[in-house]
Amino acid sequence: MKIIGPVLAGLLALLVLSTATLFTVDQRQNAMVFQFGELKDVVVKPGLYFKLPLLQNVRYIDTRILTLDDPDPQSFITAENKPVLVDTFVKWRISDAREFYLAVGDERGAASRISQTVNGLLREEFGKRTVHEVVSGERDEVMNKVRERVEQDAKKIGVSIVDVRLKRVDLPQGVSADVYRRMESERKRAASELRSTGSAEAERIRADADRQREVVLAEAYRDAQKIKGEGDAKSAAIYAAAFSQNPEFFAFYRSMEAYKSSFRSKSDMVVLEPNSDFFRYLRDATGKAPAGKK
Prior knowledge:
3-stranded antiparallel beta sheet, alpha+beta, 294 residues, rod-shaped
């Protein structure tokens, strides 16, 4: 029983000594080792490390991605001298613990530096643009320029910028109505211009279609007349060839066709002299003229 006391005292002393001489670093941290208040070393790899008890102390730096989100929107003036309310957030992380500590000391100092830089750049970019451009037209371009320039400044304090975003761009109540009316008039003007352009294009298409229709009809009529003429010519040539082979039979055939066309029904009537040449094949099958008539 007498041994337990010294053993416990020894274990307690060993625990205190190990606590004073050992420290751990995990994947989410960098460790800065100070000696008499002066930065001696920065540990970036995770693991178990030693320090001098009483002489050295360790301060941890969080290397995870941090968010800078202003609770209140900032007011900026556009090129039209009109105010807009802008709400932003910044994603950033500590990339160089030594540079970070020497430049700003802690996260609060870094956040203040980043916030001032972002606000200054946004004020500059918004001052070059109109309300319409910053609300919708060139929003992505503004953020890309701001992110690039903030990244350049953040490197000086051992910080890397992951992203800079606009959460919201609003207009003060007094400005909103004027801006919306102007945007509405611009949209109406654009719609009217599109409608007039469409109407002109429709008229042009209709005129071209009518012209093509007239051309097609004229060409079709021309071709039809040409084909009809060629058919009439061939028909006349066939008739002529047939007549030349047997003129008497051809005259008889034509007379029969004439009789057929003239007397289609019982009510048909033709008033002619009985000795008319029209009835010669009815008087005589040979078609000879009656005696005494030439």
